[in-house]
Amino acid sequence: MPPQRRCHTIRQVNELAERCNRIAGMPVEFVAWPADEGRRRALARAAIPRLLLVAPDVDPPVVGIDEDWIRLPATESDVLARASQLLRHGTQLQSDVPFIDGERVLHRAGMTVVLTSTEAAILSKLLDHVGTVVGYDELAESVWHRSLSRVAMEAAIYRLRRRLDGLHVHIAAVRGRGYVLSL
Question: pLDDT tens digits, residue range 116-134?
């Protein structure tokens, strides 16, 4: 059996990615780590699966449920295997419904996050209305049982977003109206 061609550089992996997209329509983005961290964050916000190409001399990052990493140099077959695994996991993720148990633990695609009582109340309300805007007043009444300043609500949402990082659960602000949850 002939030796496998190895991808030593980001350019070689990008060429492989282009071939994969032409052949299989593979919707996985290849991202150089750590050089392209900004692009990684942008793709994560857009819920696009990412394969991080880790430079030989750095530690790999902690990855979310819709990304994986491989250290360079890597064989083409290894890169393709990781990308295919991401696609399979993404299919499972689309059918997975997150839920919060009685102990305020969020469960999503085999991962768990312990929430504060406020975070659990906010997320429960948003989970009841996935894809639709929940107004500021409705959220404040549901969670705090009273009116709340926008600054205090934004701070609580900020903390919750940080807690949800990497779980493919996104809270977006709708200016002047409230918040919307997307999975």
Answer: 999 999 999 999 999 999 9
